[in-house]
Amino acid sequence: MSGIRDEGGRRVVRALPKDAEAAAALREWAGLPDALLAVPGLDLSAADLSGADLGGGMLAETVLQDAVLVGTDFYRAHLEGAVLDGADLTGAGLVKAVLDDASLRRTKLDGADLGSAELSDTDARQASLRGAGLHGTALLGTLFQGADLTGASLKETSFGAVVDEHTVVQGLSGSVYGPMTVEGDGRRDEVGGRAMELWLNGRGADVRVIDPDARGITYYAKIGDGYPRSSPRGVVRRRFLDGVSYDEAFTRNLRWEATEYLRLYELGHNEVDHVEITEAEADAFVAAVTAKLGEQP
């Protein structure tokens, strides 16, 4: 079916799905420039939404089988339980998207950005994630048997995935939290720490498994317009004790107090960005705030 093109507003529907209800929903969405796409449970199989802005869209349990979604932006989109088997998401943006329980079998995600996305219990068997960005991604119970992770990038990624001898990890690099599960010979074995590094790196990866008891304290500066790293709006830290993380912010009370900022950010519920900083930078911020508030009557 012919599509709808509104390149300026990125409401791009290059090919409509065959399902009449789904096609009507896309036409309506294309005509409402400020509306989010809400098509939960509808059948958008074989639709072409390449380059479209679907940020914040509601696509839970939506069927996107064999859809063409090249370069599509799914920032913070809800795709829980969605079916994207065989879909092409090359170069797609899935930052902070929620794909828990989704099906990504044979899905092409080459070069896609899945930073801070959630893929818990997602079926990504035989999916291709060549060169994909998986920074901070939650891969808990994710099925990667037969998946291709060649050249994918990791950073503090929760890699609690299921892999097997057919999972390709050549060039996979970065840092992860384990353990993962290795499937083979009719059994599943939990593999973490040094054994996890050996399994991955022995197959061409360059991965470091983070020891939660050895991470110490990591500091972050909250940044934004008018608040550069050198003068942030605030500083938070994450420290570990007996393998349990504790998040704290330096407050106007001139002490470190518990905060939910980092966890909310990881869940996609906080728009304030942050960057990792050194302990010296954090100490400088604390000193500056203490001096400033100490001058106030």
From TrEMBL:
Organism placement in taxonomy? Bacteria, Bacillati, Actinomycetota, Actinomycetes, Kitasatosporales
Q: What is this protein called?
A: Pentapeptide repeat-containing protein
Q: Which InterPro entries match?
A: 5peptide_repeat (IPR001646)
**Which keywords does UniProt give here?**
Repeat
